C-alpha cells in the first residue's frame, strides 16, 4: 500500500500551530489523510493556515470525528505512538522497525495515531492499536513536539515506501530481461479494526454477564484479550465465527433462564 493510504490521526490536538505544521509535514512526504479526534482548536483558522504554508489542501480535507473508533473506521492496521513505558506485554518499537508494517496491506487503509501534546494517549486509546512506537530521545529531555514526532514517523514511512518501489522494480525483472508479476503475500481478509472492536464489546458484555469479569477490573482484563487477538491478526471470517460462538452462548443462557423460570 502506498503511503497515501495511511491515515495520520491526531487525538484532541490543542494547538492550531501544531495542526498546521503537521499538515505541512504530511504534504512534504506525500500523505493526504489527516483525521482529528475531538480537536480542541480550529484546524482551519489563521494560525493553522500560517503554519501549513502550501498544505492548505490537507487542512481543508481534514476529517474531524468525535471518537478514536470513528477515526479508525475501515482500517485494518493501526500503530499508536507513546513516550511512556507500559506494563503490558506488547513491546515499544522504534519507528524504523514497526512502521513498515503499515504498508504491507496493499489497498487496505491503515492508521498512525498520535496523542495529545501534553499527555499523549490514554491506556484505553492505546487499546485500539495493534503495535506501539516510541521515538528514542535523550533522557535529559525526552518530550517531543507533536509536529516533530509526526515528521519523524512520516519520514520513516516515506523512506520505506520509496525503498519498496526500487526493490519492486528490480524484482520485476526476470531471467533474460523478461518481466514477471510480483504478488503480495499479505492477507487481504484481515478484519477491519471496527469489526474487531465490535467483537471486543460483545465479548466484554458476555463476560460481565456470566461473572468472569467485574466492572471495576474489566478494562485491565480486556487489555489482555486485546493483546492476544492483536497477535493473532484475526481475519474477517474468524471474527464472524467468534461472534457466532458468543451469540450461541447468549442464546443458551437466555433459554436456560426461561426453562428455570417456567
UniProtKB/TrEMBL annotation:
Catalysed reaction per UniProt?
cytidine(32) in tRNA + S-adenosyl-L-methionine = 2'-O-methylcytidine(32) in tRNA + S-adenosyl-L-homocysteine + H(+); uridine(32) in tRNA + S-adenosyl-L-methionine = 2'-O-methyluridine(32) in tRNA + S-adenosyl-L-homocysteine + H(+)
Keyword hit for DNA damage: no
For this UniProt entry, the molecular function terms from Gene Ontology, in alphabetical order, are: RNA binding; tRNA (cytidine(32)-2'-O)-methyltransferase activity; tRNA (cytidine(32)/uridine(32)-2'-O)-methyltransferase activity
Looking up InterPro entries in the UniProt record yields: Alpha/beta_knot_MTases (IPR029028), RNA_MeTrfase_TrmJ/LasT (IPR004384), SpoU_MeTrfase (IPR001537), tRNA_m1G_MTases_N (IPR029026)
| One annotated Gene Ontology cellular component of this protein | cytosol
GO BP annotations, alphabetical order? tRNA nucleoside ribose methylation
Task: Answer whether the UniProt record assigns the keyword Transferase to this protein.
Answer: yes
Where does it live in the cell? Cytoplasm
Instruction: State whether it acts alone or in a complex, and with which partners, per the record.
Output: Homodimer.
Q: What is this protein called?
A: tRNA (cytidine/uridine-2'-O-)-methyltransferase TrmJ
- Organism of derivation: Chlorogloeopsis fritschii PCC 6912
